[in-house]
Design goal:
The chain is of the alpha+beta class and 85 residues long. The protein has one domain. The protein is 14% helix and 26% strand. It contains two helices and five strands; from the N terminus they run ββββαβα. A five-stranded antiparallel sheet has the order 4-3-2-1-5. A hairpin with a 7-residue loop joins strand 2 and strand 3. The longest helix has 6 residues. The N and C termini lie far apart (52 Å).
Length: 85
């Protein structure tokens, strides 16, 4: 059975990052748990692969669109960007 694409926005440290990160469900929920993989976009584009178990309800509460997750825009929340003029 194929897993539908479900994405969520997680708080710092949840997906082994110092800031916010997006995660993607890579399994179906079993006993209230679901396997989530960190989305390698934004600040975490080079962070490598990470998959952990989270509560299925947490994924539902923090759900975002695939477009938002793949843009990586939320990974920059709480950080500063310096841009030359």
């Amino acid at each position: 059975m194929a897993t539908s694409n479900k994405y969520a926005f997680f708080r710092p440290d949840t997906l082994d990052t110092a800031g916010y990160a997006y995660g993607k469900a890579i399994s179906e929920a079993q006993r209230g748990k679901i396997e989530v993989e960190r989305v390698a976009r934004g600040r975490w584009a080079d962070a490598g692969t990470l998959a952990i178990q989270r509560e299925a309800s947490e994924l539902e509460m923090r759900a975002v669109t695939e477009e938002e997750a793949l843009s990586g825009v939320g990974t920059y929340v709480g950080c500063a960007l310096c841009i030359a003029r």
